[in-house]
Amino acid sequence: xxxxxxxxxxxxxxxxxxxxxxxxxxxxxxxxxxxxxxxxxxxxxxxxxxxxxxxxxxxxxxxxxxxxxxxxxxxxxxxxxxxxxxxxxxxxxxxxxxxxxxxxxxxxxxxxxxxxxxxxxxxxxxxxxxxxxxxxxxxxxxxxxxxxxxxxxxxxxxxxxxxxxxxxxxxxxxxxxxxxxxxxxxxxxxxxxxxxxxxxxxxxxxxxxxxxxxxxxxxxxxxxxxxxxxxxxxxxxxxxxxxxxxxxxxxxxxxxxxxxxxxxxxxxxxxxxxxxxxxxxxxxxxxxxxxxxxxxxxxxxxxxxxxxxxxxxxxxxxx
Length: 319
Ligand SMILES: N[C@@H](CCC(=O)N[C@@H](CS)C(=O)NCC(=O)O)C(=O)O
Hints:
EC 1.8.5.7, GST_Omega-like_C, mainly alpha
């Protein structure tokens, strides 16, 4: 009989809280890189990316895959946004528009991939998953590392114009790293720490920290097109995936309602809209049906009716 992994797959049974009621995100487990001469060589037709359009972390990987023109090199499979008791389902387990079947193993759920390569795996079954078809294992399931891999590892195999795209350039690394240091805990994960808190004090601390950091970001974006320097970097990608979900989901579902982006943060809104409407890597990686359905459906501990709100209208304002 197979091992009971319900406590790892069912988010409503998550034990990821400390005694103060604060949400603690577990660290990712698969942390390999793709490099010449390494266990995972950069090659065509070897790697596969599993994502959910709902997930901000997976969307980082989707955006960078497209910015770097890696679509032919690294095919992608999209799961259903309705993450239930067994985690993320493929189309065969949950027929949702836009969901797909696992082309490699006909898995029913993302957890099947984790257990296929690591039967004793005791962590959460998260997306994104970067899979190696040769060794039949997960190379990496940490989006911040997957986007760095995509940024450089395949440069010799892609269109030279795309190879020149560098979202983590040497001269801006220090600034990018410093920004990541607060944007990740306060904003990217801050919305989750607000929404998943199970005590009022933990929620209030998280939501105040979140809005303080949004205020800080708003000032940084004053008169600027990109967050760091005058070019698109991973700082924009990493921050944008949270900003685009903010008004449609986090304001309501995660109680991040001190302000919304469209009326409270004109600079963030301008930056966010511009990337959405003018750069296909951003718009094409965004599916609001999957985003809204995922959050409002998948956390019955927060929204037991699973009703998905109609608004906001529009989901993203015009330029
Ligand atoms: N650190 C990971 C986090 C990924 C993550 O937490 N993904 C969420 C979806 S937004 C997930 O798959 N959660 C499933 C679960 O926790 O059971 C990354 O950035 O790649």
